[in-house]
Amino acid sequence: MNELIEVLKTIRPEADFANSKDFIEDGLLDSFDVVTLVAALDKKYGISIPGDAIVPENFKDVQSIGGLLKKCGVNA
Amino acid sequence: MKFTFHRKRIAGLLTVVPAREKCFLEEMHNFNFPESRSLKLKEVMGFDKRRVVEPGVCVSDLAVFGLHHLFDKGLLKPDEIDALILVTQSPDYFMPPTSNVIQGRLNLKQDMICLDISQGCAGFVIGLMQAFMLLEQESVKKVVLINADVLSRKTSPKDRNIRPLIGDAAAITLVERDTEDSIIHARLKMDGRRANTLIVPAGGMRMPATPETAMLEDVGDNNLRAKDHFYMDGTEVFNFVQVEVPPLIDELLADAGRSAADMDYFLCHQPNRFMLQKLADKMKVPHDRMPNNLVERFGNTSGATIPMVITCNLAERLEREKLYVCLAGFGVGLTWSAMLLQLNKVHFNHIIEYK
């Protein structure tokens, strides 16, 4: 999970991800940040997160991002 | 919806792009975002350069310039044009049709049909389908299809979600009957329930343009936009493309009894590099068989992107060989369309600058 927070920090260094329950609702990630995050995760783990999985509910918190990565065969 | 056409071909392709170039590295300072975030986005989306018209330049200006070029070079004779189809989301006027304006400015013959089609990023396939249907008539021998937009004029200078994406262009495609018995398969779907996903809210009869609709408003996520401006729900559009386009292409391939491996190229509309890479991954198509190199040079030029992809990537090869390709467009409406056809003997295939 700490690893994911580190990746998130590269996208929005100023954002307080640790104290947010919903990154999208709280305005920490907009749709373009999600795209940048997906590209970063693809590169870091050598995967391609499916395009149809790039929906807000998969990026609302560290658990949901971790769940998405798990479906892609990555235990983050 | 399923379509089949026989003995039709693309005989020539010419794209007109404005000489005026905008660079994302210069423009990004206009947006209310830290430079580091914009630079990351540039890398992922492929934002770099785009071509935009000068203020006041319209679709008919680009189209007339391009057709004059074809006439001057002896690549097409004015009297040969039996049908002129314009596909655009940014016509010169509400009325008359811009295709008639182009006909008039070029002093073309009266014995022809001019037709405006209100479509955007899926509009190349739709325009080809209309051209093929017209060519079923004995009296129609050459159809000029023009996919043109100047949508940069409808973008907010303070909207990073839209502005850096949009380029202007006019693609002119000459469509004729083929002497070979080539079979062309096409599929098309539309969903007007999602019409608000890509919209310019004001300026039509529903919400006439007023000083109020021209005022920039804070729309959240650090962007400012007026109701006169182009709005896109980026998340919804992205998801629409990833969910709807692959099955449409699968159905089309099945119609033709082909597999993805039989296609030399998948030539898709190009909103941004990331979207196409994800589409290629979903369809298990190698990235080099779905080119995504247009948006970084010209921006997203609406219905002109597919013919531009052909010209930018395949012009040389098409001088000496046949290529079997899948075209796919997706956008306003919502509309998604795809077509399988053979490209061969493309008489002209180049890009010129409008000055």
List the helices and strands and how they pair.
The complex is a heterodimer of chains A (about 80) and B (about 350).
Chain A: H1 2-11, H2 31-45, H3 62-71
Chain B: E1 2-6, E2 8-18, E3 21-23, H1 24-27, H2 35-45, E4 49-51, H3 59-72, E5 83-87, H4 98-105, E6 113-117, H5 123-134, E7 142-149, E8 169-177, E9 183-190, E10 198-199, E11 217-218, E12 224-225, E13 231-232, H6 234-256, E14 265-268, H7 273-282, H8 295-298, H9 305-318, E15 323-331, E16 335-343, E17 348-354
Helix pairs in contact in B: 3-4, 6-7
Structural classification of chain A: mainly alpha
**Count of beta strands of chain A:** 0
The helical percent of chain B reads 25-40%
Count of beta strands of chain B: 17
Judged by helices, strands and strand pairing, the structural class of chain B is alpha/beta
| Number of helices, where a helix is a run of at least 4 consecutive DSSP H or I residues of chain A | 3
- Tell me which oligomeric state these chains represent: heterodimer
- How many individual helices of chain B? 9
Write down the Rg of chain A: 11 Å
Beta content of chain A comes to: under 5%
Quick one: biggest sheet of chain A?
none
User: What is the chain-wise order of helices and strands of chain B?
Assistant: EEEHHEHEHEHEEEEEEEHEHHHEEE
Mean pLDDT of chain B, as a whole number?
95
In terms of per-residue confidence, which ranges of chain A show pLDDT below 50 for 5 or more consecutive residues?
none
- The SSE string of chain A, one letter per element, is HHH
Give the largest interface pair and sizes.
A-B, 20 and 25 residues
| Fraction of helical residues of chain A | 40-55%
* Biggest pleated sheet of chain B: 6 strands, mixed
Coarse morphology of chain A: globular
